[in-house]
Amino acid sequence: MTVLQEKEMVLCAGFVSKHLERDAFLPKQRDILLENALKDLSANPDVLAIYLAGSLVKGNDDNYSDIDLHTVVNSKRKADFLKGKRNRANNWVNVTFHEDYNTSSPYVVTLYNTFVKVDSWYHASEEIVPSIWLKEVEVIYAPFNVMSHVIKESAKLVYKPSADDVEHWRVLSMKHTEPL
User: How far apart are CA 169 and CA 106, in angstroms?
Assistant: First the structure.
């Protein structure tokens, strides 16, 4: 490898990329995939809301960031959504593979041939309650307004670790610093 070729490579999360041209198009591919998913999901009358979480919402995304897609569905239809989650994800763009496929699990992880990964979660409406995890989400579809109160109440929440929580994490962190 020449010095020039080495300079053209980019570090991302500690890895060197040799695919700069391909990787430069990943955000556009991610946008197309998200648009396809939104069109598909919002066409279903049992979809009550769709929101995004993760780095795309927090603003610390990069070319390699995945899509954390959450879909709130009619409670009576959630089992059907879980059974069909893999097939639904297949509708958005050409799929390379699905990780950890369990029909009763509320999520499916899908990697597409565009090198974009989507973590798709399905929630029944009554499962959506105020939480510190809902402080940084972006609602992208909500015709029934099921998310606004939950988002408003979530914004008020503050994580306060207990003494047991602190001790638990202290012990875990010390295990990783001990010599082998």
Answer: 27
